[in-house]
């Protein structure tokens, strides 16, 4: 039997360890295969806290994250992170070329069964409108937009089932923004029956372009988005 949701959060709570302030207030969320969900909300409302908790990157104070309807055992976390990929607003690249960065995940234990595919990497960089020399560029020489493209290709080549995109195009020029949107759309279209994304964006035009179900975060509370009609 197939679980109804790829990813679920039940009453997920995150507190500030120092002050015990609630950062995320019992968030309930479910993401089905084929869905694209957008989260908007003011700065500091807890969107990144929520995404990082969902990605199991930060400790959860209470509640559950379910993957295909099940709790995630400690030993299953590497496999979970491989399937549910968090894309940060500010990409973190290692020293070396773009290709070195794309090869990097394959040096990790969680990917020991997978091999770097240069043709695939070139295909993804072409899809993002990058030139032939992109893979040979030094990570330190990349523009902000190029660095984000490189970090997204690094994730997409591993074919995750869920993408958690935390303002991946904030502060990028329109051309780089479209490149990121195209990469994500191609990834989604390649297997809509098994993939889903959660995208945090502050840009109303981007929210319109991407479409999908909308949610909003206010002061740590995640709710369905309701259009305010004046
Ligand atoms: N690890 C942490 N410990 C304590 N407080 C934190 C931690 N991480 C985030 N916060 C606080 O939680 C609140 C929500 O932060 P968060 O980064 O989730 O905001 P956001 O909605 O993503 O904002 P933005 O749109 O600016 O990215 C902020 O007040 C932030 O200072
Ligand atoms: Mg944020």
Automatic annotation (TrEMBL):
SUPFAM superfamilies: P-loop containing nucleoside triphosphate hydrolases (SSF52540)
All residue ranges annotated as the ABC transporter domain in the record: 7-230
Keyword Cell wall biogenesis/degradation among record annotations: no
InterPro entries in UniProt: AAA+_ATPase, ABC_transporter-like_ATP-bd, ABC_transporter-like_CS, P-loop_NTPase
Protein keywords: ATP-binding, Cell inner membrane, Cell membrane, Membrane, Nucleotide-binding
Pfam families named in the record: ABC_tran
GO molecular function, one term: ATP hydrolysis activity
UniProt key word Membrane: yes
UniProt xrefs under PANTHER family: ABC TRANSPORT PROTEIN ATP-BINDING COMPONENT-RELATED (PTHR43119), ABC TRANSPORTER DOMAIN-CONTAINING PROTEIN (PTHR43119:SF1)
Protein's recorded name: ATP-binding cassette domain-containing protein
Organism of origin: Trinickia dinghuensis
